[in-house]
Write the structure tokens for this entry.
Amino acid sequence: MPELINPKNAAHCYTIADLRQLAKTRLPKAVFDFIDGGAEDETTLKNNLEAFSNHRWLAHVLNDVSEVSTHTRLFDRTMTLPFGIGPTGGAGFGHPMADLALAKAAAKHEIPYTLSSSATTTIETIAKQAGGRLWFQAYVLRDKDFFWQMIERARACDYEGLMITVDLPVGGKRVKDFHNHFSLPFKLTSRNFLDFSSRPSWLIRLLTHGVPTLANLKGLDKAATTQASSFTKLASTVGKNYDPAFNFESLSKVRDRWKGKLIVKGVSRPDDAQKIMALGCDAIVVSNHGGRQLDGAMATLDALPDVVKAIDRKIPVLMDSGIRHGGDIAKALALGASGVLIGRASLYGAVGQADEGAQRAIDILSEELKRTMQLCGVTQIDQFNETLLKKI
Ligand SMILES: Cc1cc2nc3c(=O)[nH]c(=O)nc-3n(C[C@H](O)[C@H](O)[C@H](O)COP(=O)(O)O)c2cc1C
């Protein structure tokens, strides 16, 4: 691993690790840990990353790789790159413009952007100010009227896809958030005073723009979305609003009602994937929420091949969790993914330096992907296959 540097700004970042470091130097520890951390012992968070290094390339040589194309198709539309931006709620706690920065960078690259229902920017603002190919991610709420109102708003703004996240019937246990006394508004307490005041630019930005709120959940539950509750309270109050009773039958009702593309995120098992496909869903995302939910869950790269086999290319299988290099994207494609979603990799950029950071993250990933293709002797995305990889 190259030595870690402290980059001055996004332009001095050459890897996602550099962007992570930039975010670390610019954010209070509590906010950085909220983004960077995982559930419980963070075993799955680590395993997600290790799974990529445990798969090694067996590259082709002597192919003409002077021209390569990263273009691919998803839902009969072209994407210039085989990835989209996944949903990350609470990005605005890192930088108030983070959601918009990610959406704008995605639109510029003609790749999908997924807005989280727990975002700090509204469905309408993203559609108006960023545009592009938009998906809306919804957690299933107990309050079904509210849930459907949110989805109707996405429909009214022409979002192409609805993503239902199914690996969060209850919130995961992120111990760092408790230890860091992370609260909203960023209430100064004896435990976090030094932390928040150690990042004056972040603090000034926060005071100038106003303390972020979960804009799309406004009105759901006062305690969950206003600035009056502590983060630990907020986390559990939002969690209280999730519907742990949501099941295959409920998903089938969502399928009946949402006429756009329906993407189900948070699947690890081939049998679940087959049942979801049988309900008429349009795509599956193999994901363990970046290790933020069930600690001890299998790394998604390891879970991917069995799901791909079970789905047998009838609908797209996307994956996320642990992608930090363009080469990681290539490995997921080689194991049968139709594309991937980017989580923390682009979020580090967006919270570190908004537009420039989000843009830089996509540029780094796309440049690395293209280079990996050339070094593997691959000129088209669909030439990736499992013979190029060996698991050690
Ligand atoms: C700060 C943060 C917030 C997230 N919020 C959501 C969310 O609101 N909805 C969701 O489905 N997934 C959410 N995720 C999970 C991501 O969509 C994605 O599955 C995960 O980040 C992938 O792992 P990676 O970051 O290691 O690539 C969040 C992840 C992070 C890091």
Notes: The two ends are 19 Å apart (CA to CA). The first strand starts at residue 55 and ends at 57. The domain at 10-52+78-174+240-364 is CATH 3.20.20.70 (TIM Barrel). Residues 35, 48, 86-90, 116, 118, 137, 165, 265, 287, 289-290, 292, 320-323, 343-345, 347 surround flavin mononucleotide (CB under 6 Å).
